[in-house]
TrEMBL record:
Gene3D superfamilies recorded: Glycosidases
Protein name per UniProt: Asl1-like glycosyl hydrolase catalytic domain-containing protein
InterPro entries linked to this entry: ASL1 (IPR053183), Asl1_glyco_hydro_catalytic (IPR024655), GH (IPR017853)
Keywords: Signal
Keyword Plastid assigned: no
GO terms under cellular component: fungal-type cell wall
Signal sequence segment: 1-16
Domain Asl1-like glycosyl hydrolase catalytic span(s) in chain numbering: 87-280
Protein source organism: Heterodermia speciosa
Any single biological process term in GO: fungal-type cell wall polysaccharide metabolic process
Length: 308
């Protein structure tokens, strides 16, 4: 039986369960990425067929309230209950904390809530820097509020192993240390040894399970990634099973699920029409997901078929 099962895996047979831990593969939708006419329904259908389960995007409020998510500019985004259910909300910065208190007291509590997005890095000036002492003061009442159905994620730092930020934050807010069960981190590191080393270092420091809420080899320029699409696909195929095998990383969120515009090291998982590309095929394949049939990769890509 076991031998037969191994042979099936070797032959590339995919299962509905996948080979990584359940819910391991997830993605990111960026507010700044162009939303093509296909967004979100065909893209989400494609992504989920490759085992993507949840997504992060940069808001606490539901998507329909955010016009940045609609292909037609300046209109409210379309409502999609399945998509909305898969969204992990973020308390972006101290300006969201009061609304998060209201959310926790409502009858619509989210199963997970990330507490601050990159307080240590102001991306394009769009998000404010928050120092760890101010963050501790701001988040203390929120983490202390009853939250029987919600698991908290730590602030997701751009530099998660910074020797000062998280240690000062937890020192100033012991209730944060006890109430936050998951350490969130962002990592864009094309060097696989460095990536695994930094993920392990963060876990060794806090001893809590980890979600990599932004992941990929490319972060918009600074990571030094020079891969072509085949290189990005190879990176995904190699590193994703390694991270899964670490055991303490519960979920990774590949950035990004959209059709991003980038000349080099393009991390997009989908094409503008919502179809899968070679990177998504590699990412899903790394966890034993084969996608739905009928992909046009053979004609679209480099003449590669779908079988491996
Ligand atoms: C973490 O990544 C940096 C490069 O960004 C690297 O210099 C360092 O050695 C890595 N740390 C570990 C423990 O691998
Ligand atoms: C594949 O190509 C056919 C014909 O060009 C098109 O109708 C179909 O929508 C494409 N499917 C995908 C998944 O791209």
């Amino acid at each position: 039986m076991l031998l037969a099962a191994l042979l099936l895996v070797a032959a590339g047979t995919t299962s509905a369960q996948g080979t990584c831990k359940p819910g391991f593969l997830n993605t990111v939708f960026n507010t700044g990425t162009p939303k093509h006419a296909s967004w979100p329904d065909p893209i989400w259908s494609t992504l989920t067929s490759y085992g993507i389960q949840n997504f992060i995007t940069f808001s606490l409020a539901p998507l329909p309230q955010n016009p940045l998510f609609d292909p037609a500019p300046n209109t409210p985004a379309r409502s999609n209950p399945t998509l909305e259910k898969a969204r992990i909300p973020i308390v972006m910065d101290p300006r969201d904390t009061a609304a998060a208190q209201t959310l926790l007291a409502s009858n619509n509590t989210p199963p997970y809530l990330e507490l601050f997005n990159e307080p240590d890095y102001s991306y394009g000036g769009a998000t404010p820097l928050t120092d760890p002492v101010a963050a501790a003061q701001n988040l203390s009442p929120l983490v202390s509020a009853p939250h029987p159905h919600t698991t908290f994620l730590s602030p997701a730092l751009a530099n998660p192993n910074d020797p000062n930020w998280l240690p000062t934050f937890f020192d100033q807010c012991p209730e944060c240390l006890s109430q936050i069960d998951i350490i969130a981190m962002h990592i864009y590191e094309p060097n696989i040894d460095y990536a695994i080393g930094n993920i392990t270092e963060l876990h060794d420091r806090w001893g809590k399970r980890i979600w990599i809420t932004e992941f990929g080899p490319y972060n918009g320029g600074g990571s030094g990634c020079t891969f072509d699409q085949a290189g990005v696909a190879e990176y995904a195929k190699t590193i994703v099973p390694m991270i899964d095998r670490l055991g303490f990383v519960e979920k990774i969120f590949w950035n990004c699920g959209d059709a991003e515009v980038a000349d080099v090291c393009n991390p997009s998982l989908t094409e503008e029409d919502g179809s899968a590309n070679a990177v998504l095929e590699a990412l899903g394949g790394a966890c034993g997901f084969g996608g739905k049939g009928g992909s046009n990769l053979t004609v679209r890509g480099r003449g590669r078929g779908r079988g491996r």
